[in-house]
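for the record, two folds in this file. i put them one after another cuz i was lazy. first one right below, seq on top, structure tokens after. the second one comes after a little note so u can tell where it starts
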Amino acid sequence: MKKFLLVLILIGMAAAPLSAKAEVEKSASASADFMSHYVWRGQRLSDGFVIQPSVGVTYGGFGANLWVNWDDNTNSLTTAGVTETDLTLNYTFAVEKFGFDAGYIYYAFPGGGDTQEIYLTVSYDTLLSPSATLYVDFDQGDGAFLVASIGHSFEFAEKYALNLGA
């Protein structure tokens, strides 16, 4: 719990020097993904279909998201029901063409083994939008994971876009 509070304080301190906008942007979202398997960072964690609902809110650059994995247990590696619940807190901001997203993720697993990560994403606003995210697990996983990507979005109607990435 002390580590969690430290992460929140550090994110708040990083945000303090940034100037406030006249009107703060706010949003809320909800979604549910239906997948044939649960694959996380290259590891197949389920053999049956999964449902992954998510709800999130943002206020200015701050965000919070709750995500759940529900496994149907058809040929599964785990038992049926909720197998993971993640809470993500983050702060997003930009400096010229660079974008930054710093955050904290708490991974809760039924029966124990919960773990925590902090992460930092750095992106650059150009044609292929290169980005890199470093995840550091400072709890049960005790390790780091780096993801690098490029991508481009082609808007072809006011509400539609084709997003390509690698």
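(here's the note) second protein begins now
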Amino acid sequence: MKMKLKHIISTFNSSQLFFSMGKKCLKVALFILFSTLVAFFCFYKLSTPSLERWDEHTNYKVVEESLRSTDPLELKYEGEPFLEKTPLWYWASMVSVQIFGLNNFSIRFISAISGSAVILLTFYIGWKMFSYKAGLISGMVLLATRQLFVKHTEIFATHTFRSANLDSLQILFMLITFILFYKFYKNKRCLGYLFAAGISTGLGFLTKGPLSLVPPIVFFTFLTTNRNSLKLKPFQIMRFFTLHFSLFIIVTLPWHIWMFVINGNEFVTQYFIYHILGRGLTALEGHQESVFYYVKLLFRKDFFFSGEILLASVIFLILKYKRKIFVDFSLLSCLAVCCLLLLTVSLAQTKLAWYLLPIYPFAALLIGKFFHDIWNVKNKLLRIIVISIVILTLGSQTFSNLYIILQL
């Protein structure tokens, strides 16, 4: 009898081990397939489309002219200092050009590699915050988001992960900052993560300006509003903020001082007044739209994966977690960053379609969390219906994007 019992237990343990190994193999296979799609979407025929006048051609000329100048670190355009944008993307693209030569591929390489990293990092964040399923769905949502890979033929939307523009590199640094804050929160407030987040925030700012400040704003607001449950004193939060802000200043201030010393009031006028303040307070170059412009774009399948599923995700998660959402950093931070970014670009007077791009990874994480929770609901009919809708929409949108990319 004992021998039979031991045999049954041994068989059960073997089957459990086999099942566990099967799940791991499936996860590895899915990740390999996912990574292959990411690389294909971002790099296939990257050099084929001609450069767009706005803003690829300008960025190409800035890199070309700066490399030929006596000081490549000082950006030039048509013989004059180029003060419209911060320099990091241009410096990185100069390295790319030195490796691959000056061509369409090299000038788009930094954007494409950053875009690939954004999608993979979104998968990783979803995995670590919620589950492997949530991470995979979050990553697939980005693959199903057409605006990230294909310019629109009717609406002025030329910035993608495949274009020679600054957006994907800034989004990458925003996501790095975001995951570093999460690591700091989860790992007994290890200051190394906070230091790294300060550097990443600074690099994001040096890529494309103030939107990189949104994750820190959300993080320190969370610490402040939850200081009692986190057993934090005000001076500790101030200390964390000071450390983070100090690293941010160390990264960003030298370039700004250098530009002011070289260019004086022209730098203040072009960079601060026109391109930072001007975009928020006035509709530059005629780019004026309704305050609901970006909300409308989110519900267009030729821009985002599915505004309807995103809205359902937000409503479901709020109704499920209610007040608990305010103490759940993983969920609240995704929702808060998404909402704050959407509010910021909606209130800015200059409306350009690519201002939506930083929102997509955080929206994808919310959908991934929604999918994870729906997978575990007890109502089998609801589970089957919702999961089927999400997967079918993902499949159809992804294959549609794949077909368009193949036609390039």
